[in-house]
Every structure is written in structure tokens, then in C-alpha cells.
Amino acid sequence: MKNFSYIFAAAMLVAFPIYAQHGGDHHSMPKPPSHGPSEYHATPHPAEPHRDYRDQDNHPNIPHVDPRNHWVGHDTGRDDANYHLDRPWEHGRFNGGFGPRHVWRIVGGGPSRFWFNGWYWNVAPYDIAFCDGWLWDSDNIIIYADPDHDGWYLAYNVRLGTYVHVMYLG
């Protein structure tokens, strides 16, 4: 019985630091959206440079996905000039996988050009301010199709619960 106690104590000494690395509060991490936004059919919200995106006091003031899977800020409609491209998908279409079953770790770059798994991307110029807190060498993102803006995808940051429009560069 004494040997069991020593083995149990040793196991706990090894297990506790591993558990502690997860930060303790697992509920603070946003839950990835189960799907991308639906095509927007209501009256478009005008694109404003100083828009307030907080739908609740504790939510970020940038485009984000709320716990009800609502894409806050994705409501400027199909004709938003900020996301107009003369040649949509000029670098081809991304086919590496969409949605929460495909989580990608950014391994380098910045908003103007970043990459993961050998695929290159850039953030829409209008959205660069929204990715200020992103870690360009380690954040996990999920890619979703953008149903309203041809040639753009949505990159959801798993750590922050926010998203930006991105273009696939090949």
C-alpha cells in the first residue's frame, strides 16, 4: 500500500503542471463557430471607420462571433466597396478545408502576407486594424467562406474569437 501512495504522489506531481498549463479557466476561450455567416439579406449596415462592434459589454469592439454563432459586424452587405475586387479569386480558390474541423496554425508573416501549411494569405486592407492582437507565428485560425464578398474568406482567430476578411494568395 505504501508503494501505491508513492506512485500516486509521483503521478500527481507530473500531472498537475500539465493541467496548470491549460490556464485553468477553459470557459474563457471562445467556442469556434460551427459554420460561417449566412448571406446577408437585410438592409446593409453602412461601413463606418469608427463603428462600435460591441453587442454586449464584455465583447470586443471589433468584428467577432458571439456565443450564439452570430457573426457580429458581417452586415455591410454584398455591395460593400471595402471588399470589392475587380478579379475575385485571381490566385485560385482555397480548398484546404473550411470550418471548425480544420484548424490551422499561422507560422509566419503579418497582415500583408501570412502563411500556414504552405498556403499564403493577406488581410483585407479595411480589416488590418481588427487583427492588431493576432500572433502571426502561433495563433490558430479557422477559414470560412464569405457568402457576401466574392474573392474573400473569413479567418476566425480561435484564441480571440474575432475574425477578418482574408484573400487566398495560393
Written description of the protein model:
This protein has one helix at residues 2-20; strands at residues 64-65, 71-72, 103-105, 108-110, 113-116, 119-123, 140-145, 153-157, 162-168. With 170 residues, the chain is an alpha+beta fold. It contains 1 helix and 9 strands. The strands form 2 sheets. A 7-stranded antiparallel sheet has the order 3-7-8-9-6-5-4, with no helix packed on it. A two-stranded antiparallel ribbon has the order 1-2. Residues 12-27 have low confidence and may be disordered. The longest helix is centred in the first third of the chain and has 19 residues, at 2-20. It has a domain at 64-76 and 88-170.
Quick summary:
Helix content is 11%, strand content 22%. With 170 residues, it is of the alpha+beta class.
Q: What is the overall silhouette?
A: globular
Q: How many strands in all?
A: 9
Provide the structure class.
Answer: alpha+beta
Report the order of strands and helices. HEEEEEEEEE
Mean pLDDT level: 87
List the strand order in the largest sheet: 3-7-8-9-6-5-4
Question: How big a fraction of the residues is strand?
Answer: 15-25%
How helix-rich are the residues, as a percent range?
A: 10-25%
Poorly predicted regions: 12-27
User: What is the number of helical segments per DSSP (H or I, 4+ residues)?
Assistant: 1
Main sheet overview: 7 strands, antiparallel
Q: What integer value in Å does the Rg equal?
A: 20 Å
Amino- and carboxy-terminal Cα gap? 61 Å
